Amino acid sequence: MRIIGREREKEILGRCLQIDRPQFVAVFGRMRTGKTYLIREYFHSKFAFYATGLSD
Ligand SMILES: Nc1ncnc2c1ncn2[C@@H]1O[C@H](COP(=O)(O)OP(=O)(O)O)[C@@H](O)[C@H]1O
Ligand SMILES: [Mg+2]
């Protein structure tokens, strides 16, 4: 994992992984602050599927 920092965020995502029920996580913030990068890197091999898009 090449994630720099984000210790608190990784701890939250790790706790979600340990819970044996589906979890909903909303990641929000200004653009280019690392939201997509955090999710992609943290869950890199654990995706069943991945989709992304824009509203328009
Ligand atoms: N925690 C991080 N560690 C290392 N590089 C990062 C980190 N967060 C962001 N980056 C770098 O910044 C770029 C932009 O982040 P990105 O996830 O696309 O932002 P967002 O989805 O919030 O718009 C990434 O492609 C990556 O190169
Ligand atoms: Mg993004």
Short recap of the structure:
This protein is mainly alpha-helical. Helices cover 36% and strands 0% of the residues.
Explain how this protein is built.
The N and C termini lie far apart (33 Å). The chain is built from 2 helices and no strands. Helix content is 36%, strand content 0%. The longest helix has 12 residues, at 7-18. It has a domain at 1-22 and 35-46. The model has no long low-confidence stretch (mean pLDDT 91). It has 56 residues and is mainly alpha-helical. It binds adenosine-5'-diphosphate and magnesium ion. The site of magnesium ion (MG) has 2 residues, from helix 2.
Core attributes:
single chain, 56 residues, 2 helices, binds magnesium ion
Q: Please give the largest β-sheet.
A: none
Record field, number of beta strands: 0
Helix percentage range? 25-40%
What's the SSE pattern?
HH
Can you tell me the overall shape? globular
Bound ligands, each once: adenosine-5'-diphosphate, magnesium ion
Class per helix and strand makeup? mainly alpha
The overall average pLDDT, rounded, is 91
Radius of gyration: 12 Å
* DSSP helical segment count: 2
Distance between the termini: 33 Å
* Strand composition percent: under 5%
Quaternary organisation: single chain
Low-confidence stretches: none
